[in-house]
Amino acid sequence: MIELFYSNTPNGKKISIMLEEIGFEYKITKVNLNPGGNFSEGEQFKPEFRKISPFSKIPTIIDHDNNKETIFESGAILMYLGEKSNKFYEQKDRTKI
Description:
4 strands
């Protein structure tokens, strides 16, 4: 199961769309980027979130079926999901075999 750390942003939506398209089971964990109208106090800056996303950014995923591998940055996540699902990503373009 993939856990998606998400906020309602264009990059967050990209990953949720990809997960729907590839048909993977996933869970969304919402990350409040703007509590009380102050972006500098968002949940993405909390130490527990920085353990999985060192640059304090969403989206981030944890692949609970693959030793809890953590991937952050939307492009890297899309590549990872494409490779894992064998969809939308040509074999010749892959970085892992």
